[in-house]
């Protein structure tokens, strides 16, 4: 049995100039947001900031007063709303399992409505329950009220996956769970997310959850989008105090494990660096003029490194090329995790490392400055 | 012997009257309920009307039918029907609409049509209330079918009123005992059925 699909994959979900008012009150005000295919975008903000409203415009549970929501460039209003919703997994905090149906019937309801036969439904339900770590034989025939909150939420997740949708909308799915259980479900969800590689819009009020799960985070306040960016962008370039407050950047070291080398490196201006082919004479000239004790030699990665004033003097007296006296530095790619990079610097007794982007030197990572920034 | 046959006949007449009215009441309430599912204005109108009908004493409802449609079996059926309409409609309505809003939201959100929301969410939620409504209506129909003897409905009510006017204790008892028996039987059997029908998730 196949599933009639509106789209096999989601390349983009775009909310353009979305406004929704209740009476005189804006629930969302001129919202512009693009969700990229394959990413998990977090919506975070105070209660009443418009997150749920924004989310529900995507599956047309709410029709905005103005503006357009489009998926892969097609206005969602072009789709039949029921078909659209069957192509979008939807999970809410209250889960919404039907109390009079068994777990297997809850998970399989849409498949039944889509005309699958009993056999196929049972098989699919078993697979889905297994995926969310609920042994099928133990859970298929039970009723929702016989399950714990965490188990019910897993069932909710399984139900959302029944139609194998390329897009998921999740409204504080783990919000009602106790912290320990929440962490566990986040871990499992993260694994599932990686396996399935779907596009997900995920509302939370928990910034740690946001950092754990989110590729990008959109911060909403008073019906408006304040900032959207990667966790690192929000931590290091918050556009307002509100953003700093929400991402808790005063205690950013707590999030050090989400950081990459690229976020902490000092970019290097080309005019301040030395070319490996440069004569020692002109290198010395430049360093003296700029008052540098040491300088970076930037060429192809294998000849890049640093030189001290001393080295340059040596090279001049010996009449050798600059690259002969260049000392290599630990090399990192900009998406190496910060933790890993710092550990390597420490073990090699280096205070700095060269950061490469596309095999080109792009910046320098100073271990002491990292720590300064983090504490 | 004569009296036994008379009682039996009157009882059958009584039951026929009461439950024809109940059946018609159920048939009338179904479209009204369905309409009110799709039209909030109509729903509130129907609810207001039903509440009004309930405020009017049963005896008055029975009496008011006479100037409108006269006396006999049909007016009696209509009088009973008007009276049982309310518990049927009101209970069903409450059952259909007192649903946890997040249930409706998630059902719509995963892609159920309006009809499927009624079929899979609202109706199962309403069954216990609907059943309670039917039980109440059945008991109500039994007692009003006694009153409708006054407007020519016949049955056990006629025996009771006859007995009352003639101070004939035997007649009075012959009329009232079956009515009481029917009421007790209804209460007992409906409670049993209710227990069977109560969904597992509502049983403690
Ligand atoms: N159906 C509604 N009727 C009236 N006001 C609403 C309705 N839904 C949401 N709102 C209002 O719109 C604003 C945004 O709500 P919502 O999107 O649910 O916020 P969030 O999910 O961020 O908590 C709130 O002020 C809320 O009170
Ligand atoms: Mg919300």
Fold topology:
The complex is a heterodimer of chains A (375) and B (204).
Chain A: E1 12-22, E2 25-36, E3 40-45, H1 51-58, E4 66-71, E5 74-75, H2 81-86, E6 88-92, H3 103-113, H4 118-131, H5 136-139, H6 149-161, E7 167-171, H7 179-196, E8 199-204, H8 207-213, E9 216-221, E10 224-229, H9 231-236, H10 241-247, H11 261-264, E11 266-267, H12 280-290, E12 294-297, E13 305-308, H13 309-318, H14 322-325, E14 331-333, H15 338-348, E15 352-357, E16 360-366, H16 367-374
Parallel strand pairs in A: 3-8, 3-9, 6-7, 7-8, 14-15
Antiparallel strand pairs in A: 1-2, 1-4, 4-5, 9-10, 11-16, 12-13, 15-16
Chain B: H1 2-38, H2 40-55, H3 58-69, H4 73-97, H5 101-109, H6 114-147, H7 156-165, H8 169-197
Helix pairs in contact in B: 1-2, 1-4, 1-6, 1-7, 1-8, 2-4, 3-4, 4-6, 5-6, 6-8, 7-8
Bound molecules: adenosine-5'-diphosphate and magnesium ion.
What does this structure look like?
The complex is a heterodimer of chains A (375) and B (204). Chain A is built from 16 helices and 16 strands. Chain A is of the alpha/beta class and 375 residues long. Chain A has a six-stranded mixed sheet, sandwiched between helices. In chain A, helix 4 (118-131) packs across helix 6. The longest helix of chain A has 18 residues, at 179-196. The mean pLDDT of chain A is 87. Helices cover 84% and strands 0% of the residues of chain B. By secondary structure, chain B is mainly alpha-helical. The longest helix of chain B is centred in the N-terminal third of the chain and has 37 residues, at 2-38. Chain B has helices spanning 2-38, 40-55, 58-69, 73-97, 101-109, 114-147, 156-165, 169-197. Chain B starts with a helix and ends in a 7-residue tail after the last helix. Magnesium ion binds at residues 51-52, 171 of chain A.
